[in-house]
Amino acid sequence: MTGQWAAARDGSWFNHPNTSTPKVIHVATSDGFALCDPRVPLSEHSAWLRPQEVPVEVRCRRRACAAAFDGAH
Ligand SMILES: [Zn+2]
Asked: How far away, in angstroms, is 39 Cα from ligand 1 center?
């Protein structure tokens, strides 16, 4: 797999999923974790998108992800 991919974090990671919160899409590390927090696995069940395909309003705004999104286009 070449290039960067982005996906939602795995909802099962939460003890109390809050389904009213809009999904946030993170940029993935090469082994499938969130770039902004390598302890957070991204969901295998999420759609995997190219970072430039992710709508701005659902992009993760933490530094590492934001920088990757900014560099994606
Ligand atoms: Zn993130």
From this structure: 11
CB 26 within 8 A of CB 71: no
- Give the Å distance between the CA of 63 and the centre of ligand 1: 8
- Does residue 1 belong to any structural domain of this protein? no
Q: Print the domain residue range for 62.
A: 6-12+22-70
48-70 pLDDT, tens digit per residue, is: 899 999 999 999 999 999 999 99
What global pTM score does this model have? 0.79
Residue 17 covered by a domain: no
Q: What is the CA(11)–ligand 1 centre distance, in A? A: 14
CA of 67 to the centre of ligand 1 (A): 10
Q: Which residues contact 33 (CB under 8 A, 6 or more apart)?
A: 39, 40, 41, 42
